[in-house]
Amino acid sequence: MKSIVDPQGALARGLAAIRAEFQVPASFPDQVVATAEQAAGRTPSDHADRTDRPFVTLDPATSTDLDQAFAIERAGSALLLHYAIADIGWFVEDGDPVDAEAWRRGTTLYLPDGKAGLYPPVLSEGAASLLPDGPRPAVIFTIRVAPDGIVHLDGAERAIVRSRAKLGYDAVRPDDLPADLPELAARIAAAEQARGAARVDPPEQEVAADRGGRMELMFRPRLPSEEKNAALSLAANMAVAAALRAKRTGLFRVMAEPDARAVARLRHTARAFDVAWPDGETLDCFERRLSARDPKEAALMMAIRRAGNGTAYAPFRDGERPWHAAMAATYTHATAPLRRLADRYVVRAALAVANGRTVEPLVTDAFERLPKVMARAEALAGRVERAVIDLAEAVMLHGREGQRFAAIVTDVDERGARVQLCDRPVLARIDDKGMTPGEAIDLRLVAADPEARRIAFRRDD
């Protein structure tokens, strides 16, 4: 859960209830921990020495599960991104207790008060994490980025790396980073623009007290360093996806376009936030010009992210084109193996393909099984996220019962009407079917119960 943070602990009691309700694991079984501790002492034996490369990491300052480190160099008109990915696969044996537990979990679960990791901390925040306290095993993807932003996987190898610095988004200085990072990020952004991509990255929401002491949901502006870092993962994932698809293998991240009804809801949401969206402008064009620095546009970005037909994983199929609508490209997940199970197998396939080897049958079989496993894990993460949002909204509105709120009806179905508040990033339901999408109404807050994670409005006539 990265979309809401809670620095003042306003959600603490409710989060404990959410953890209990959704059975969020608080620890790992003893056998899993023992196996992980033994694996953490393994000495890499088939890794090249790349400790001379000036790798650095760039993450939230408090993060310790570091999946990626990077270095950049020029090669004529191209830029070479050396992207080191945590080699968790080196520490996990197929079928061992750590592997079995990872298949049960599927992904790391995030909540504002902490996470439930995919792997035990001795690996994910220790031996396998690309921390700057010593050499670490990694898989290095070498990505060639052309002047027009087109990417190509030049190579992949297991290697020992040493991070020079653990850089934080909020404190990093330009001279801490590779000199060519701004140009590389600009090339990737230009390529996105050229192919019509509409990647939406809304900022985090933070539960914090306003000047009057009331709790509010506020957006934390997305930092330029985050934007540049996101370009690195995008470049690597696209290059790996293309390489795997060319060899008729892989596991891809797919996403359909929002349907007409979802787009209509978003137009009403934009109206609620007083964000101009001309009738003839497509959703793709509209969302590309939204700014996460504007609170209302940030809230709209959040609505867009949640409005699509959902993302899924799909293995390679002859005659099918795996497509991610927001990326406007074939796309995979390979850059966060400490946090997503699927990435570990995509990395293994990329190592094989880049070095002229056949992808192992075990990996090919995993590609068939992973979509269901990842869908189950993401469904749980989605339910937890929705519960946290419900809690945050109830905390924010608690004590405001009886107040009036302007809203826009975004949709009407058999359950009633969905309404978007005009001055807060809150989407609610009211039991009233006699409304028209796009209608402006006034609501009266009837209840805001943090214990039940429930808010209730009625139309105020």
Automatic annotation (TrEMBL):
- Name listed for the protein in its UniProt record: RNB domain-containing ribonuclease
RNB domain segment(s):
47-356
Q: Which InterPro entries match?
A: NA-bd_OB-fold, RNase_II/R, RNase_II_C_S1, RNR_Ribonuclease
Question: Where in the sequence is the signal peptide annotated?
Answer: none
The opening ranks of the lineage are: Bacteria, Pseudomonadati, Pseudomonadota, Alphaproteobacteria, Sphingomonadales
